[in-house]
C-alpha cells in the first residue's frame, strides 16, 4: 500500500494543475463534497475528511483507499469602454478602448520542474488517499493528496490581448502531497480528528505593464509641445533633456512600458486542521473544522524587461546639462537596462478557514446538509515582494511616492466574508445516492478591488452527482459542477484596475475605462473507493 501511495503522490505532483480562480476554498478537493455544494462538515466524505473535517476519519473501519481525479476548465473575459469624459492627462486615444479580451487557457506548474509551457483547454487534478484502522481500535490513521488552492489563467494565445496588462499568465496553486492525519472515536456519538496537510505552493505572474495616470499624461503632452518630431532640440540639450530620447523616448500613458515575470515556490509548507463531529442520532449531526493558515514564505526569481520608452527617456535626460541634476533630485536611475533579473522572496498568507455544518436526515431516503464558512482573506491587504537589488525600473516610481525600489507592494484590499452552502442527498435504493449542491459564493474581492488578476465576483456554484456501491467493498462517485459570475466596474471604481488619478502608478492599467467581465468554470470529478 505504501508503494502505491508513493507512486500516486508522484503522479499528482507531476500532473496536477490549478483549475480555478483565486480565493476558492474546497474546490477540486472531494468529488462527493463538490456534489453536495461542499456542505459536508457534519457528514465528512471518507478519506477526504482529512480536509473537510478530520473527525470523520474515525467513522472508517478497516483499511481503505480513495483514487480521485478532477478535470476542470476556466473561461473568463472582459471588455473595455471609455468612461464618461475619458481623459488621461490630455490623452483620449487609448488603443484598448472598445476592445475585449481573447481566448483563455490553463497552464500548469510541476513541482521540481517548473512551467512546461503548455496551454491547456482543461487540466486534470489527480490524487490518492489511504486510511488504516485496526479492527476494534478507536484510532484511524490516513493521508491524502489534493489541491487546496488554485488559480490558473493564460492569455498568451493573442499577443494583442488587452488582458495582457493584468496577467499574460497567472498561476497560484497549493498542492497537498501528504497529509498525515488521525481520527479518534471518543464514543458512538462523538469523534475528534487532526490532520497536517503538507503542501507545495507556487506563485507565478507574467504580465505586461503600462501606467496610464494623469501625471504621466501631462508630461507626455508637454513633450509633444516642446520636442520636434525628430526628437532634436538644441535648447533642450542645455536644459533637462526631455527630448533627448528621440521618438522612442516620447512618453505616453498608453504605451507598453515593461514586462514583469516572477516565479516563486514554497516546497514545504505545513498547516494543521482540527475537527469535531457530534452525531446525536442517524437523523442529526453537527460538525466543525478549523483549517489553520500559514504565513507562506516563497523564494524564487524575477525578470523585468523594460521597453524603449522609459529606457530612452532616462538616457536622453542624463545626456543633457541639467537632466542629471533633476534625476538625482527625483531619485531617477542613471540608466535602465533592457533586462534586469535576480532572486526574490515574498511572504504571502494562506488564510485560516473555519467551517461549521449540520446534517438533517428526517427520513431514511432524504438528507439535507447546510454549512457556513469563514476564511480570513482580509490578510491579503497587499502582496509584498522583496528583490535582491534595486530594480532600475522601479527607481522611476520614486516620483510617485514609492521610496524603496528593492520592494514592490501590490495593493489587494480583500475582505473576509461568511458563505453558506447547501447539499441534498437522495437514496432511492440502498446502493444508489443522488446528490445536488448549491453554493452562492460571496467573493472576498470587494467590487472596488476587483481586477483581471482576480476576476472573481460573487458567483453561484451548481453541482450534481451520483454514488453507486458496486459491492460491499467498492463504490464509485461521479460529479459535474458549474460556477458562474459577472462583474461591472465603471471607470474609477476599482483602484486595483481602472482608477484615473494623479499618482496611481501601482497599479491601474485600465485607468478611466468601464470594465465588464465574467467567469465560467466547469468541473468533472470521478473517484473510486476500496475497502480491504
Automatic annotation (TrEMBL):
Predominant localisation class: membrane
Record carries keyword Transmembrane: yes
Lineage: Bacteria, Pseudomonadati, Pseudomonadota, Betaproteobacteria, Burkholderiales
A GO CC term attached to the entry: cell outer membrane
Protein name as it appears in the record: Outer membrane transport protein
Leader peptide range in chain numbering: 1-21
Keyword set includes Membrane: yes
Family indicated by similarity: Belongs to the OmpP1/FadL family.
Keywords: Cell outer membrane, Membrane, Signal, Transmembrane, Transmembrane beta strand
